[in-house]
Amino acid sequence: MSDVSGPSHVLVVGDLMVDVVVAHKDPIAVGSDTPARVTINGGGSAANTACWLASLGEAPQLMAARGDDAFGAMAAADLDDAGVAFVGPDEGEMACGEYGPGRMAEPAAIFEAIQGLLDGASSTPAILPPPAARPMAGKRVLVTAGPTHEPIDPVRYIANRSSGRQGYAVAEALAALGAEVTLVSGPVDLPAPAGVNLQKVETASQMRQACESALPVDAAVMVAAVADWRPRETANTKLKKAAGFGATLELVENPDILRAVAAKGPKRPKLVVGFAAETDALLANARAKLASKGCDWIVANDVSQPGVMGGAENTVTLVTPRGAETWPQASKTEVARKLAERIAAAL
Hints:
Blueprint lengths: L8 E5 L2 E5 L9 E2 L14 H9 L8 E2 L5 H12 L8 E4 L5 E5 L3 H13 L20 E6 L4 E4 L2 E3 L6 H12 L3 E6 L11 E4 L3 H11 L4 E4 L6 E3 L19 E3 L3 H6 L8 E8 L3 H12 L3 E6 L10 E2 L1 E5 L2 E4 L3 E2 H15 L1
Parallel strand pairs: 3-4, 7-10, 7-12, 10-11, 12-15, 15-16
Antiparallel strand pairs: 1-2, 5-6, 8-9, 13-14, 16-18, 17-20, 18-19
């Protein structure tokens, strides 16, 4: 523990400050409490902290999990003006026993955001860009991600093989550009992306309701692999098999969330982007989906290639009414960054 007398990365956890020796110039402060209560050297509000750190060099980028109290909101506004970035808050059970928004972001999410800043500290950070590069500030965006689970009985369900990685990366990339992002996610095993409002659902019907509640927005990016069908009836107890007898499920069509969001009306986003996971005739199917769903862009990918479903990389083709553009294979994070920049330019 020591006083900080010059530029360094500073890690602040509640009231505990630790020097982090790294070979970069810009200070980074990380607070695990409401910004109004984050302190440095034993005192001062988070707003004062930001100003103090700014005096050391360039304006800091503060990664912090914040609550929703009025005092914290005022401090957060000051920090936003200073170009500070936030991780969280998440929604869930808190230390006080209450449930709701205000839970600290998971350590893995905070660490990933810090690593993104450090990786790009010499130029543009990989996850959170500097304040000057926030063209989506003031824009609201809806993103869907993951699969939906359509229950057959209490232990079985129908689903698509989606990990949610691409949708989560898109949500985080848009938030990094300054957008207010609502991420409606089906069941996945991923930490909440930094700086987004995460709403977890299970079924297609629940996802549709959550999307409708999120409107109006400036843009909608519908990445989720929604199950096309669901059982007409769901058993209340586990269905038992009998030797020599098969089973028949009667399926009904699920709501078409992409078409509903893209439908003409006062709440239609200015830009609606759909995703198409195809195994053959990629461009033909993507163009057909673009026309039938009424959306503005389709991001198509060939999921027959090994490692795409659930993997870390993707090869996509952006299809618009003006043509198609295939992007080189890249990490899903890089695909998300590129798509977010295109969306920002279109808005």
